[in-house]
Amino acid sequence: MSVAVRMDAPAPHRTVALNLELSHHDPGASARVEFHDRPEGRIALVSLRGSLDAMAVGRLTSALDDLAARGVTQLLIDCAALGHIDYRHAPVLVAALTRFEAHAGSFVICGLSPYLRDLFRLAGGEPRLRCWPSAHELLAPARELESPGERAS
Asked: CA of 102: how far to CAs of 20, 30, 57, in Å?
């Protein structure tokens, strides 16, 4: 895990990012979590990469539970760089998102390819998902409050 914090930004607009390795084997999976504190609450942008297998989904669901416990009220899951999820484990991920919603706040899944949408549909999880084409479109209004170049790297 690596952490990036931009400390020269004003306190209300600091962005913190974590890089999580979700699985070690080929093809692997990772997640980048960016925290954005806003007047309406703490937003977590979770950008997924690679291929989610049982190990990766287990680690991701643990991370989602931890985000809820740490005061995140809005969760954006960006799947634009996600190549595959094992359809047998998609219901586990949907259950974790539903748990987040029940205990902490709202969530949106962004950037699902038609293939990934079909995998969620096959697993029976699509009716419970709220999808949006792009996480950056949803985060853009909040980013307008930030100074240029404030995004964590």
From this structure: 24, 25, 19
